[in-house]
Amino acid sequence: MTHTPFEIPFLSFFGSAAHTGLRQWHRTLAWLLVVTGTVSIALLLVAMGAGSRSTRAFQDVNLSGSLRYRSLWIYEATQKNNAAPDGGWQGQWQAMAGIQSRLHARYPEAAAAADPAWNAFSGSLRQTGQVDWRTADALGLAADALTRRIAREASSADEAASALLRLGLAGLLCSLAASGLLLSRLRAAEGEMRRGLAASQENQNLFLQSINAMQEGYLVVDREGVVLVCNAGAERLLGVEAADLIGQPMKRPGR
Predict the structure, then answer these.
(1) 3-state SS of the chain?
(2) Distance between CA atoms of 22 and 28, rounded to whole angstroms?
(3) Residue 103 contacts by C-beta under 8 Å, 6 or more apart in sequence?
(4) Contact indicator for 232, 219 with CB cutoff of 8 Å
(5) pTM higher than 0.70, yes or no?
(6) Which of 64, 183, 193, 236 counts the most CB atoms within 10 A of its CB?
(7) Which of 4, 6, 2, 50 is nearest to 200 (CA)?
(8) What is the pLDDT of residue 138?
(9) What is the pLDDT of residues 20-65, one digit of tens each?
């Protein structure tokens, strides 16, 4: 982009140390916006993952708790149907086996503590088709312990999800505040630049009017000798039009 000689002082002013500091402040704020926004989105994604784990853990609490009631139901069924090879408890037993396998895959250490009670309960059903109260109650107690451990994990995951969600939302609010501040400062800087350029253009017009009103020839050249301004007097003296001179280098004597 080509600037007129009257815009150069204004642009140099905006390149001064004071405005360099202002631009640096804008860059810092922009980087802060990017960092806080990225971190906030990452925290929200992690919070969603923790929330999903919490929801799944609370579902597993219900499954684990059902092991007690299913074991008691099978106990009652086997006691009421001693003569029948299948008193209707096979479906419940298979459901319990599926729950036990699922919980073992997700909480191996906690579920392993219930394995002895589960093995005794299943072994009794396989061998005799019945289960006594002590065996059923032992499985119920083991299921209760497993349920408590899963519930603690669910609560921890829920608390972590809540904390991450709060941090992520706070980060987003900071990002929004930073973006609003950055936008307002950029608008203010843009307004200042527009006012400066308007003042520079006005000064340029006044300057051109004054030199064009002069009878003497008047030229303005830069350090390289390129003509920037040529008034009507210079056109008459040189016998050329200003449009042919402006932007062209002046020939110096001896060249």
Answers:
(1) CCCCCCCHHHHHHHCCHHHHHHHHHHHHHHHHHHHHHHHHHHHHHHHHHHHHHHHHHHHHHHHHHHHHHHHHHHHHHHHHCCCCCCCCCHHHHHHHHHHHHHHHHHCHHHHHCCHHHHHHHHHHHHHHCCCCHHHHHHHHHHHHHHHHHHHHHHHHHHHHHHHHHHHHHHHHHHHHHHHHHHHHHHHHHHHHHHHHHHHHHHHHHHHHHHHHCCCCCCEEECCCCEEEEECHHHHHHHCCCHHHHCCCECCCCCC
(2) 10
(3) 60, 63, 64, 110, 111, 146, 150
(4) no
(5) no
(6) 64
(7) 6
(8) 92
(9) 555 666 677 667 777 777 777 777 777 787 777 778 888 888 888 8
Q: Which two tokens stand for residue 88?
A: 């209707």
Please tell me the distance from the alpha carbon of residue 6 to that of residue 115, in angstroms, as a whole number.
Answer: 88
- Residue with the bigger pLDDT between 253 and 23: it is 23
With cut-offs at 50, 70 and 90, classify the pLDDT of residue 225.
Answer: confident
- Taking only the tens place, the pLDDT of each residue in 227-246 is 888 888 788 888 888 788 88
Nearest Cα to 194, choosing from 18, 7, 1?
Answer: 7
| Structure tokens that stand for 238 in this block | 């040189």
Q: CA 52, 53, 54, 55: dihedral to nearest 10 degrees?
A: 50
Are residues 100 and 92 in contact, defined by beta-carbon separation less than 8 angstroms? no
Q: Answer yes or no: are the C-beta atoms of 99 and 53 closer than 8 Å.
A: no
